[in-house]
Amino acid sequence: MSKLNVAVIGCGSISQKRHLPEFHHNSEVEIVGVCDINQSRAEAMQAIYGGEAFTDYKTMLDTLDLDLVSVCLPNALHAPVSMDALNSGAHVLCEKPMATSKEEAEAMIEASERTGKTLMIAHNQRFVRSHQEAKRLIETGAIGKVYSFRTGFGHGGPEGWSVDGKDSWFFRKEDAFIGAMGDLGVHKADLIRYILGEEFTDVSAIVATNAKENITVDDNAVCILKSESGIIGTLTASWAYNVNEDNATIIYGEKGVLRLEDDPSYSLVATYTDGAKVNYELGQIQSNDAGQQYSTGVIDHFVEAVRENKAPLIDGLEGYKSLNIILAALESNETGRLVKLNKGAK
After folding, report:
1. pTM score over 0.90
2. Which tens digits make up the pLDDT trace of 183-204?
3. Is residue 36 part of a domain?
């Protein structure tokens, strides 16, 4: 079976640390193109991974015979570039958040359906083993009825992660559209939907910029969510956790409590009302720590979905539903009101 030809559009940190090395280590694909408006950055990745280097993605789409495309660009470019790639005949893996509006997200889904090409959104937290095990425990009734949760994601900000540091596009509204809520909050919106296995109906939020100077996006947000079955909880996203990254989720149920990525030794701790306690060693969660090497599972899952012609775990509609929570949080903050969510893109 011949390998799938893949190109990566955008050669910043997410490409350098996740997409390119994971495609490189997947025996099913061959990297044939890399693209970045910064020519030296594209050529640096070409020197490591091969293929052709481009500075214009449309030229690359027209020039190469591509099966797969990864879109690793500023948020405002996710939708238009993904749709161009889909329309060129490629299957697309797009970084999160998938779009900057419901209309953009719906257009991406329509392009995927019309072309018959896979659209996957790179929500990597669904592939973390502690998160998968927590979902299984909830589904099997281990903690009984779920009542509440708190989930959060925070670190010191993208200046320590982005290739452009303090000058990163992450801080500019015209490029990023949204700050910590798009960078981190959408991860947790997707994760809590996945773990609980249900949708949210109500969102209330305060979204603020109170930690960093000279930025035009949010850096701190706290949301209150209510699910269709009545589960209530909080979701926080922050670029102001300057000492340690926090990526914890806690689920409170009738028969027990699940603590995910909340203990330094155990990735999942289950404590039950009968006094039992189970500590799970399931490996490290994906983080931005320098030098950490791992496979997120995202790339391998995307390739497998295309190879086997099956829907990926996070298709366009799933990405839309998680984005919708973040958009509702922005609306709630702007209006000072609780926002009711619709059911989906269609």
Report:
1. yes
2. 999 999 999 999 999 999 999 9
3. yes
Judgement on whether residues 100 and 187 belong to the same structural domain of the protein: no
Residue 251 and residue 138 in contact, taking contact as beta carbons nearer than 8 Å: yes
Q: Is there a domain that residue 194 lies in?
A: yes
Number of domains the chain contains: 2
Amino acid identity of residue 132, one-letter, is Q
Assigned domain for 346 exists: no
Residue 136, domain extent = 125-288+321-340
Strands 146-154 and 119-121: unpaired
Residues 144 and 279 in one domain: yes
Q: What is the pLDDT of residues 3-49, one digit of tens each?
A: 999 999 999 999 999 999 999 999 999 999 999 999 999 999 999 99
- State the Cα–Cα distance between residues 284 and 130, nearest whole angstrom: 9
CATH number at residue 130: 3.30.360.10
Instruction: List b or e across 109-129, with b for residues whose CB sees 16 or more CB atoms inside 10 angstroms.
Output: bebbeebebbbbbbbbbbbbb
Amino acid letter, residue 33: G
- Count CA atoms closer than 13 A to 208's CA, side-chain side: 10
Residues 158 and 265 in one domain: yes
Phi, psi of 117 (to 5 degrees): -105, 145
Residues 147 and 103: their CA atoms lie apart, in Å, by 33
Q: How far apart are CA 333 and CA 50, in angstroms?
A: 46
